[in-house]
Design brief:
By secondary structure, the chain is of the alpha+beta class. It has one domain (2-193): Aminopeptidase (3-Layer(aba) Sandwich), CATH 3.40.630. 30% of the residues lie in helices and 31% in strands. An eight-stranded mixed sheet has the order 1-2-3-4-5-6-8-7, sandwiched between helices. Helix 1 crosses helix 2 (51-61). It is globular. The protein binds coenzyme A.
């Protein structure tokens, strides 16, 4: 299934949020989220300072059938469709049935379990829709909210990659987290029968 699946971003409905493709009207919120130094504290790049940086990302890789094999969704409020954050499957490797997952929310949406709901929908798509076998999350070990979120979703912390990244002159470790399709299905069945 994987090899012929186009990298579209299907709309996926959760209880409080929906995952949907990005749209032009998301650009101001998308920029504001990436310009917030608190949101970006453990990010892969420093906070953005110019809206053109958001525009470039929008135009280059957030649309359907992006060239670099990723599926990107806006996390939107189910009631008014306002963009609250984003979640993505990226580095999708069809031959290995492997991908990375990333997630982020605007700061005023933290602490309500919304990232958990959104990432669970993305993982359903990764394993059931795309037929992946393993999903990885590359997390700075100091990012406690993200480590906790991954572990609550069933990811196993598999190892520490020392000084893996350099962001704005700071070297950062990676706590590599991995989730297998069979772990996900087992966890989902257990939650369904609880
Ligand atoms: C990581 C992030 C998406 C979590 O979003 P969220 O919706 O607040 O997460 P949740 O509400 O689902 O909470 C996740 C868990 O982390 C816990 N948590 C939240 N903040 C925490 C903190 N500072 N320290 C320890 N645990 C924390 C929550 O209590 C929850 O655990 P629980 O399910 O046992 O109650 C959000 O903090 C964020 O956008 N951060 C900036 C971007 C980022 O770092 N992305 C990840 C890059 S790897």
């Amino acid at each position: 299934m994987m090899a012929s699946t186009p990298f579209i971003s299907p709309t996926l409905e959760g209880e409080r949020i929906r995952l949907r493709a990005y749209r032009e009207s998301d650009l101001p919120a998308f920029f504001a989220m990436h310009a917030d130094p608190v949101v970006m504290r453990y990010g892969s790049h420093p906070p953005w300072t110019h809206v053109e940086q958001a525009r470039e990302k929008f135009d280059s890789s957030l649309h359907d059938n992006a060239p670099d094999r990723q599926v990107c969704w806006a996390i939107a409020d189910r009631h008014d469709d306002r963009m609250l954050g984003g979640v993505a499957l990226f580095h999708v490797n069809a031959a290995q049935r492997l991908a990375d997952v990333g997630y982020m929310l605007q700061r005023d949406s933290w602490g309500r379990g919304l990232a958990r709901e959104a990432t669970a929908l993305a993982l359903d798509h990764a394993f059931d829709g795309l037929g992946l076998r393993r999903v990885e999350a590359d997390i700075d070990p100091r990012n406690l909210a993200s480590c906790r979120l991954a572990e609550r979703l069933g990811f196993v912390r598999e190892g520490l990659l020392r000084e893996r990244w350099e962001v704005a002159g700071e070297t950062c470790d990676t706590a590599l987290h991995g989730l297998l399709a069979r772990d996900w299905r087992t966890a989902r069945e257990a939650a369904g029968s609880a």
